[in-house]
């Protein structure tokens, strides 16, 4: 009781293989998108101890070309991961929306978040904010990754994620809204989100903040200003001290000249009195 599978008509990537029922009693379903496991003994679909057909990622073949997927996986071949996330109060603020429909859409699609932010053009193509690559694990889109090799060879992609070193004095994100964050991985521009206990992203709803050149170099600018101020202060101190010294010497010289003039006048008057 076998025939050629027609899965490829609906799913072009599906293999063109045989499907139907097999086994000594024709009780074993066949899945063209799955694989035969000769050691399968733990399923109702393998009553004769002859093995069974399984699907990817722990799925089981329960009927011809029908896969019952394990938790966290979906699709006709059980190769599509499922990502969900329960929005906590902080995440709701970061999403910057008051519509509960948007919150529900985000919880069902926390990686792409396409229902809220749609797709964005980048390098001539359309991208979402990220992809669900494993059950409840997102790979967020990184538009400008740090690359030690490219930086060394081409001088490109040299900037990693930016953490404001002057955060205790200012908040550059304050006027940008709650949906912006500083990067935490090797990505300098793109998207990030909440993380699990293994530091893997479970959402991609946040924008990585890209600082201006002044903000990125703010510490160097402050240091340069301080150094210039110190040098100027030292120059001013020594220059002012020299000016004061010259003024003091000039005063001493004037007093000396005045005293010499007075002594000369007294000496001339004393000679006149003697002659008289």
Main beta sheet: strand number and arrangement?
Answer: 3 strands, antiparallel
Beta percentage is 15-25%
> Could you say how many structural domains there are in total?
3
Whole-Å distance between the termini? 161 Å
Provide the residue-averaged pLDDT: 87
CA radius of gyration is 40 Å
Number of helices: 7
Number of beta strands? 16
The order of strands across the largest sheet is 1-2-3
Q: Helix and strand succession? A: EHEEEEEEEEHHHEEEEHEEEHH
In percent, how helical is the residue content?
A: 25-40%
Molecular shape: rod-shaped
Provide a compact summary of the structure.
The chain is built from seven helices and 16 strands. The chain is α+β, with helices and mostly antiparallel strands.
List its salient traits.
single chain; alpha+beta; 7 helices; three-stranded antiparallel beta sheet; three-stranded mixed beta sheet; 276 residues
